[in-house]
Model the fold of this input.
Amino acid sequence: MFKLIDLPYKSLAPVISDQTLAFHHGKHLQTYVDNLNKLLPGSGLEDLPLEEIVRHSGLDPESRGVFNNAGQILNHELYFTQFASQPSCPAPTGHLKAQIEKQWSTIEAFKQDFESKGVTLFGSGWVWLQANETGELSIAQYGNADNPVAHGLKPLLTFDVWEHAYYLDYQNRRAAHLSALWQIVNWAEIEKRYK
Ligand code: MN
Done:
């Protein structure tokens, strides 16, 4: 049985309001957890860890329901745990900083590219910073529940562009929401994932 993760903070306001956080974590993510727990018995995937469930179900069109719910749990767990109300590490450092600057020249240029790919993602989905096995980075747009894990890549940083992530606070202003999110990204967590 999967369980709803605890949040490592009480509030992310004003970037994400307490109301959005409560609905997003306590209602939307809880629903994906409940759905997956209903779908898993008898699927043959019930004893696997979450990432393996995502990988296996992603390859099987018959397992679309499992994939959608497992993918959304994985995406939201990585999303919620990358933030902090006052990040101890508010900017990239070390190897990750060097790699971003190698590929985008500046952190600011990387952020603009990332935001732009979030803004132009059509419909619901996620924009991701992901790494391949040699540590090369890329930014990808994935629709619905899809994610880097389903494509054999390492997930590092993600912004949720489903409307439920921002509509109460920003209405249709997705770009304003995405540019505000940098204030709460804790890069110590992103670097831990990159290692
Ligand atoms: Mn979401």
Remarks:
- The chain is about 50% helix and 10% strand.
- Residues 24, 28, 76, 160, 162, 164-165 surround manganese (II) ion (CB under 6 Å).
